Amino acid sequence: MTSSEVAAIESQMKPMTTDRKRHLVTAALVAPAGLWLCVFLVLPFMAMVVFAFGERAPEGGYQAAFTFAQFANLPSRAAAFWNTMMIAPAGAFLCLIVAYPAAYYLAIKSNPKYRLTLVSLVVVPFWTSLLVRTYAWMYILGSRGIPNLLGMIGIEDIRLLNTPGAVLLGIVYGYLPLMIMPIYVSLEKLDRRLLEASADLGAKPVSTFLGITLPLSLPGVMTGVALVTILLLGEYLIPQLLGGGKVFFIGNALVDLFLQSRNWPFGSAIAVTLVVVVVIVLSVAMRIAWKVSGSRQVDLV
Amino acid sequence: MTAAPANDIEFRSVTKCYGSVTAVSDINLAVPKGAFVALLGPSGCGKTTCLRMIGGFEQPSEGTVLIDGREMNGVPPYRRPVNMVFQHYALFTHFDVQQNVAYGLKQARPRLAAAEISARAREALEMVRLGGFEKRRIHEMSGGQQQRVALARAIVNKPSVLLLDEPLAALDKKLRTAMQIELQTLQRELGITFVLVTHDQEEALSMSDMVCVMNAGRIVQMAKPQEIYDRPADLFVADFVGKTNRISVTVEPDGATLRLANGMAIAARSCLKPGAATVALRPEAIDLVRQSTGDGSSLAGIVTHRIFLGSTAEYQISVDGLGDFLVTADRRSVQESDLVEPGERVALTFDPGKVHVFPA
Q: Is there a cis peptide before residue B342, judged by omega within 30 degrees of 0?
């Protein structure tokens, strides 16, 4: 074999071995997370799908069967679906309305010297448990809180706690940082020269905002809305504490079905339906956001 | 009734400070209508700040900027009759080419008819030879094409002044040369004032009909490109624009003779103040010969480096008693073989009339 032939064979072999090595490294990196997701997400979800077509055993739990009865029964929890599907997006939207100006201020208007401090202030509430903070709201909205103060100035019989409004307030309060952060990131990444270019071309500040800033921050907005909406669809704590069982979410229905009445198949059917609805709604929303902003900088689904 | 002002842009003792840092200090500048002016200087000299004050992105700390004879202090960018080609273009990535170019037209109040907007956008795109690219997305375009989109977007509003902030910096050499010619042609076709900011002296000299050399927040010299090169106002300009050899000399008490460190004497063109001075000599003003004339009118040295540039070659020559000299030689001007080899001894001669003397 001549030396050139040896070299040719070596050059063929080298990429193969490095390729194999790279695959091994990739596998090693992905394996822990993959295994975790498989055991704690994929398998349970498959079990849920199986349960959803089954029947409740007489003593509670699951009994093998193949029936659509659980899905047919879905309308009996229409109120929980309705509340969730109305209040979750409404809450996310309210969050957005409050979060966007804050994120805009942090990313564009604030003094860069204090920016990091201000941004960390947004995150600070996360250091305390949501449960504790929601309890605080129970007290503030409860009869000894704001209604009491209003009573002193002669406005009687105002009920704040256990209303949809209280739940919305709790939602906006609890999820605001999750909405601010992605919007802040997308605005912070925004090239300031684009805003200058827009002004240079004759656009007044409002036109610049609507034509340039808003569309380019849309991926961040969509990420925030998706994040908050997804978490809200499974929300249990806030409606339980601030809605007092009167404003009932799917999360509360699920807790009820799985832990109290032990109707696992029906609970599974509700959960599976929820997941399907969420995936469809969010993928459509993401598609639209990508189209408008022409980029895929932050995506979630 | 007053006559139309002759100057498109005027700076009246303009100073710009950022905190304690003075970026531009007491600048007076008049750009005549229809001129192609280059603001040339090293980074941090204040040239971009000047451009941004014309665009309205910065407000002068002191003094006034006038556009078309109108004071512009406090006027926001969207109310100024100027448009800018930004460094790195600042194109809107969420729009296609046509939408980018039409953006300025869509801002006009009262609104323009859709047909007029698309007609004028097409016209602008054709001017930069991008007809047919309307529907392309920005990231599908090459650097040179993006540059043209930025140009089309800036000229579509028919500004009275076009500002260009290092417009060619991101292009490769060949494309840059082509764009230099195109920019010149475009300026002539549009007949509007161009103000170009650049740190590239070649770009400034080749394109503009007026060069304004800036250093440390001040204007050092403003003149035609040829004059800047041939008669630099000071050592900075001589150094910054083109290449130059700096030689320390002493002016003899008679004020008419320059004495070099190796004892050689040069006759001065004008009467000078006696004492230390610095002489600037262009590399191409020096002739390279193989044999020494031996009469004291030439400098002797040894070639240390040669950079071959095609039609010319640059030599670094260590001159006895004077240090390194840079010499550019036309290949034909060196006798016998057209290239001198490193290590050869040579003699340098120059015309005393091409020497610029600056007080030290």
A: no
